[in-house]
Design a protein that fits this description.
The complex is a heterodimer of chains A (about 525) and B (about 375). Chain A is globular, with a radius of gyration of 25 Å. Chain A has 18 helices and 22 strands. Chain A is of the alpha/beta class and about 525 residues long. Chain A has a six-stranded mixed β-sheet, with helices on both faces. Chain B has about 375 residues and is mainly alpha-helical. In chain B, about 70% of the residues lie in helices and about 0% in strands. The chains are: A alpha/beta (about 525), B mainly alpha (about 375). The interface between A and B is large, with 66 and 42 residues.
Chain lengths: ~525, ~375
């Protein structure tokens, strides 16, 4: 599927390397964001970097754009090793970045936006205007320097961002999820622009998780999983979205659930016709219906951003504007607040534990209270029961093998896996009937991963209904009793995890067609 | 053990900030050609009992102001409007107490409640705007300060009574039976405000509500992470409104020690600017009731001790205002430095504690770290 229509100035694979990353590593306390990343981006190519959210793409790009220094590894740009300690360094080295969220001042003209911060290059008057016009024509960007930015559409604004980067002399351009904000026609236009850029000998680094787009435009594709480069595809001919999806999510199987089925015929969670309209676009959730029975794990498979997060938030009561009914063990959850829903028996392992699951600067026992403020053993009569909460934290530390010196340690000081085990322990207390687990093993080490899988299996055995959302297909296949595939906010297929292969799920997830 | 370390680091941070602020002030003195040694000698001498009384009284007022600010800070709300809130509240209390609808201390209690209610409403406007429309409370409380100043000046004309032989504009005086008596310390003249006990009680309540109640937990959780609060069933908008109202209610108390202890009426010369000092003291006291008490005493001490500077060493007492301003900056920097150090310390401690029993697993990249062949 390589771009045979566009005549490439140099054959990919032989052109000189403009960006060479070797052994890039970056650690945050408790998390390894990047580990031994190796990438070669060749001049005059579009190099896509794909991976699930949280795989380490954005950390890598921040390193390449000088926002964060790497802990290890080397960066070579156009043959010279460089140290990038700020975006200014990166710009000097010829690296430019177009962020997903535009950084333009609406009430200024294109010219003013472009020269802002780069006044020294070509002044702010006629010379700058001439240069902008020259760049615009050279790369077919079709930009009038004197228009106000607020009059421009999204696609044009993005081109202004690209122009800003070119104006500053970049020959390596990073685009972070550039198509997320565009409608299909604009995507085609953008791809046309990118092809012009590469024909002029620039290197484009294109970050995305939309596989079909990547295959359309990229000359080379690097897949990142769990912070490391899995592989680089140098010849996109014959590569399918399915194959890429498989590489992205991995094929390491969790110890498959050999236990006998515990599914009963008693429905605990019933979702009917759940929809979430989005203003001026296709709905985020579109007429979703499913049941989860006592003792059943329902897995939701899907490429990130197809409505999984919205589905969870709708069930948790965090999304105003949803329509349809959600019933938990006979109780209509519709009118209940988030807290009331939790107290009626939902345990919730959120997707982003740092932003939604924990108070990082609070001790563990206060994190035990979080979300359980209204219940024993966390509180009594409106007062926080410190002793009760601490004792129960000790129980969780013991039962869930949270590696910590004690309950007074700040949550921030624990590793990701131990933070997650604490969350699982907290959510399993208070006798939930439904456990919602969103990416429960994302960013945790192997040992914690196995432990968390075991806890989910135990929950199932104890008769909970479990809603499992994961980007890791093997995790889904290993744990689920039923798998539903979500695509563009709709459930598009039901699979039996005993019979399905990751390839089949992958093709359903990308809408590639047949679900054999 | 860890508690001791935390406390030690807290004291270290405050000490660092004060030393830095004193050093910068000394630099200003030296550059301006003033005798830095003599100035500090004068300021840092032990106050006489008359001064001590003034210090405690001033600190009481500053304490309440800082407490009001700290309530907001604990939820990441910046209530700059304490200044306006205490003025509308003190004015209201003066009018209510002056009218004396109820006898004796009932009148006092009613006036205090009225002041708290008005303070809460005034701050609640900013809370409501923030919760319903997302208007930054920083902007709205500053605006409300201006409105408060004008509103009180306007209403004061209506409520004022003429005092013989004076052109001061004052509300009706609080009747004798409704005043809050003080007590003497040492042998000097002047009395310590009886209100100091109410302030101490407010400090205790602050600690209790924040650290022991569900409401306080929700408040602190929201302050630490709004996203986590939302995901865990806390209605953040309701918390914003409640916190602003609470902050305003405490702000309503700020002017009352003066009203019931020394001035007995609200006039055009009523002390202003207390709200801004409160912001600095809340920062210095790390939003903790005991820390704030120490901060308030320090600020009051500096104010009092700077009074004779002009006469004794010929230096303007405004130098102390410079010190107080610089403290705000050094405090922010030193607390952040110490916080980062504390986090590192904690992480090392955890790593050490876990090392013998469970060696940290080598940094693997996941179950399938090895690069795979691509059959492309």
């Amino acid at each position: 599927m390589s771009t045979t229509t566009a005549p490439t100035p140099a054959t990919p694979g032989t052109a000189p390397v403009s960006v060479r990353l070797r052994g890039i590593g970056k650690r945050f306390p408790g998390v390894i964001a990047n580990d031994d990343i190796n990438i070669d981006v060749r001049r005059g190519t579009i190099h896509a970097i794909v991976g699930e959210n949280g795989a380490g793409k954005s950390t890598l790009m921040k390193i390449l754009y000088g926002v964060q220094p790497p802990d290890s590894g080397t960066i070579e740009i156009n043959g010279t090793e460089v140290t990038l300690s700020s975006p200014a360094d990166a710009i000097r080295a010829g690296v430019g970045m177009v962020f997903q969220h535009f950084m333009l001042a609406d009430n200024l003209t294109v010219l003013e936006n472009v020269v802002l911060g780069a006044e020294k290059l070509h002044g702010i008057g006629g010379r700058a205007r001439a240069e902008i016009t020259r760049i615009s024509e050279a790369y077919g960007l079709d930009i009038d320097p004197d228009r106000l930015v607020e009059e421009l559409g999204v696609g044009a604004r993005q081109r202004v961002e690209v122009l800003k980067v070119l104006y500053r002399g970049a020959n390596v351009i990073i685009l972070d999820e550039p198509t997320a904000v565009l409608v299909p026609q604009e995507v085609d236009e953008l791809f046309g622009n990118l092809r012009e850029l590469k024909e002029e000998g620039l290197s484009v680094i294109f970050i995305s998780h939309k596989l079909d787009e990547v295959l359309t435009v990229a000359d080379e594709i690097t897949v990142i999983r769990r912070g490391t480069t899995v592989t680089t595809v140098t010849d996109t001919e014959g590569v399918t979205a399915r194959k890429l999806a498989e590489l992205m999510v991995g094929s390491q199987l969790p110890s498959p659930s050999t236990e006998a089925s515990t599914v009963t015929d008693q429905v605990l969670l019933s979702v009917r016709n759940l929809s979430l309209p989005a203003p001026g676009g296709r709905p985020l959730l579109d007429d979703i219906s499913f049941d989860i029975h006592r003792g059943e794990v329902l897995g939701i498979a899907g490429v990130e951003g197809n409505g999984q997060a919205e589905l969870v938030e709708a069930v948790m009561g965090m999304r105003p504007g949803t329509t349809g009914t959600i019933t938990l063990a006979g109780t209509d959850l519709g009118p209940l607040s988030n807290r009331a829903r939790r107290e009626s028996g939902i345990g919730y392992i959120p997707e982003d534990r740092h932003r939604h699951g924990l108070l990082l600067d609070a001790p563990l026992w206060e994190n035990r209270v979080l979300g359980h403020q209204g219940r024993a053993p966390s509180s009594r009569h409106g007062l926080i029961d410190r002793r009760g909460a601490r004792d129960d934290t000790l129980r969780i530390i013991e039962e869930y093998d949270v590696r910590t010196p004690g309950p007074d340690v700040l949550a921030r000081a624990l590793s990701g896996g131990n933070q997650q085990k604490l969350i699982v322990g907290r959510e399993m207390s208070g006798d939930p009937v439904l456990l919602i687990a969103a990416h429960p093993t994302r960013g945790v080490d192997v040992g914690a991963q196995a432990a968390i899988w075991q806890h989910i299996k135990n929950a199932r055995k104890e008769g909970l209904a479990v809603l499992l959302i994961s980007a890791d297909l093997d995790e889904l296949i290993g744990l689920s009793d039923t798998i539903e595939v979500i695509l563009r906010g709709r459930l598009v297929g039901t699979f039996d995890p005993g019979a399905v292969t990751p390839e089949q799920l992958g093709s359903a997830m990308t809408g590639a067609g047949e679900s054999a | 053990m860890t508690r001791l370390v935390t406390l030690g680091l807290g004291i270290l941070a405050a000490g660092l900030a004060l030393v830095a602020a004193f050093a910068i002030t000394s630099l200003v003195l030296i550059v301006a050609g003033d005798p830095a040694g003599e100035v500090w000698g004068e300021i840092l001498s032990w106050p006489e009992s008359r001064n001590l009384t003034n210090i405690i009284n001033n600190a009481t007022v500053l304490y309440l102001s800082a407490l009001a600010v700290a309530i907001g800070f604990r939820m990441n709300l910046f209530n700059i409007g304490v200044d306006g809130q205490y003025r509308v509240a003190a004015f209201t209390a003066a009018v209510v107490a002056g009218e004396a609808w109820l006898p004796g201390y009932l009148n006092t209690a009613l006036a205090i409640l009225a002041a708290m209610a008005v303070g809460a409403v005034w701050a609640g406007i900013a809370g409501l705007l923030r919760a319903s429309r997302g208007v930054s409370e920083v902007i709205s409380t500053i605006m409300l300060n201006f409105i408060a100043t004008s509103l009180v000046a306007y209403l004061l004309r209506k409520a004022a009574v003429d005092a013989e032989g004076s052109n001061a504009v004052n509300t009706k005086p609080v009747p004798e039976g409704s005043r809050i008596g003080g007590f003497s310390i040492g042998d000097g003249p002047g009395e310590v405000y009886g209100f100091v006990f109410i302030a101490a009680a407010a400090g205790f309540l602050f600690w209790f509500v924040l650290n022991r109640t569900r409401f306080g937990f929700d408040l602190r959780a929201t302050g630490r992470s709004t996203t986590a609060a939302v995901a865990n069933g806390i209605n953040v908008n309701k918390m914003v409104l409640a916190t602003m109202c609470l902050s305003g209610a405490v702000a309503g108390l700020v002017g009352l020690p003066i009203l019931f202890g020394s001035q007995f009426s609200y006039g055009s010369t009523f002390q202003s600017g207390l709200g801004f000092a409160g912001i600095a003291i809340a920062l210095l006291g790390r939003n903790h009731p005991v820390g704030i008490a120490l901060g308030a005493l320090l600020f009051a001490f500096l104010d009092e001790q700077s009074n004779p500077l002009q006469i004794l060493v010929g230096v303007s007492p405004d130098i102390v205002a410079i010190t107080q301003g610089v403290i705000v900056l050094t405090v922010v920097i030193s607390y952040e430095l110490i916080r980062r150090y504390a986090v590192r310390l904690e992480q090392q401690r955890v790593a050490r504690a876990l090392a013998p029993s469970a060696p940290t697993p080598p940094p693997t990249s996941g179950p399938s770290g090895e690069a795979e062949e691509v059959k492309a």
